Structures are given as C-alpha cells and as structure tokens.
Write a sequence for this structure.
C-alpha cells in the first residue's frame, strides 16, 4: 500500500532543511546519475570532523535518534528515500535537540553521488525490506551490488551491522556477505535471548519482538 502524502509535507520538509539533504536531480538512472558527483561537505554540515556512521533505511528515525544521543562522539547520517517517512525522524531530531544527526533523502544506490569514498566508519542496515520474491533480489540492501557500494564508502576496518526479523533474508545476506569478501562476527539467531549489550531497538524490532519473532543480527567487515 502506498503511503499517503502527509499534510503540509513540503512545509514540514522545509522546516527541517538545515538537517535534511534532499537529492533533487533529473537523472533517475543511478549509473549515470552518480557519475557527476555532488559531495556534501560533511565537516561544514556537522560543524566538526567526528567519525561518520550511516544508517540506510532509517524509517521514522527511532534508532537514529537514540543511537546519535547515545554516541555523541560520532556523527550519524540517516538515509531514507520516502519524504513522508523521513520527515518524522527529522522532526524528532530537532525536537530533541540532537546535534550530531543529519538526514539524506535518497535511495542507497545514489549514496556515492553525495558521500566520498572512505568517509564512513560504520553502516547500519536495520530491518531492510526483504523483497521476498526472487525476481527482486537485486533490490535487497545486502545484494552484492549494494555491498560493493558500501565497500567503497567505508574506511579501512569499517563495519556493517545488520538486523532483520526475516530468516530467509538473513540467510541470503550471510551468503552475499561471504561471496563479496566480508567476514562475519557476533552473529545472533535470536538477539533478544543473547548476551549482546547496547542494543537499540527500531520501530519494527519492537513490533516483531513483542510478537515473539526472533531477531537476527550480524556484523560484517572486509576480510583483507
């Protein structure tokens, strides 16, 4: 079901424009669109040069806000392609005065247009859409085509942290990480019954865990 456009969405987006970068270009073919770079000056945007962490598919921003508040030593960029959804996270961040959080409205395939290579220390993939039909596998955010993008964006020693409630998507991700040259650590098949500390729940995580579904989690890094 397509989400209805929120009332006064344009005005709401304008009100958070200081912390939100909206990708606005005519070329919707990402292969050609990313050829012309439009790098964001991250140091100027944040007002400092702290390490950059990135959440791709931030939804309404619950995780992003809590993570940024818990880690003032880093800067977090939260990415979401839906204007209806990302505005909620932006408004939350401004209401709570979270100064180390910024947002980009775009799809993951366009990130290389706006972020320089070797600029990100950690990437979060929280409850990404599993695209269960096999014909849509290339849309999954752990498909090799996306993993290669993440490799280029991450600094040496960077990590990807993934959480999902979907077992088949998790199995697909494990295979893709392995084939793409990543090593894995801290793999959990039931996060909330593990001894992992410091977990910050997303909106979906709270919903699915309350229904008794196990939460799958992993950490991946390039195995040089």
């Amino acid at each position: 079901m397509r989400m209805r456009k929120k009332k006064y969405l344009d005005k709401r987006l304008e009100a958070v424009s200081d912390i939100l970068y909206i990708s606005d270009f005519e070329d919707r073919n990402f292969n050609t669109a990313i050829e012309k770079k439009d790098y964001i000056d991250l140091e100027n945007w944040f007002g400092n040069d702290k390490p950059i962490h990135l959440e791709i598919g931030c939804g309404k921003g619950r995780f992003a806000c809590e993570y940024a508040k818990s880690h003032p030593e880093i800067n977090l960029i939260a990415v979401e392609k839906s204007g209806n959804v990302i505005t909620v996270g932006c408004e939350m961040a401004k209401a709570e005065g979270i100064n180390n959080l910024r947002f980009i409205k775009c799809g993951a395939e366009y990130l290389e247009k706006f972020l320089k290579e070797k600029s990100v220390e950690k990437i979060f993939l929280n409850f990404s859409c599993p695209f269960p039909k096999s014909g849509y596998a290339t849309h999954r955010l752990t498909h090799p085509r996306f993993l290669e993008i993440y490799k280029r964006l991450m600094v040496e020693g960077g990590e990807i942290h993934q959480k999902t409630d979907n077992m088949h998507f998790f199995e697909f991700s494990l295979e893709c990480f392995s084939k793409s040259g990543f090593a894995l650590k801290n793999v959990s098949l039931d996060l909330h019954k593990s001894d992992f500390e410091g977990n910050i729940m997303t909106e979906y995580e709270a919903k699915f865990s309350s229904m008794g579904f196990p939460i799958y989690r992993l950490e991946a890094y390039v195995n040089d």
In short: The radius of gyration is 17 Å. The mean pLDDT is 93.
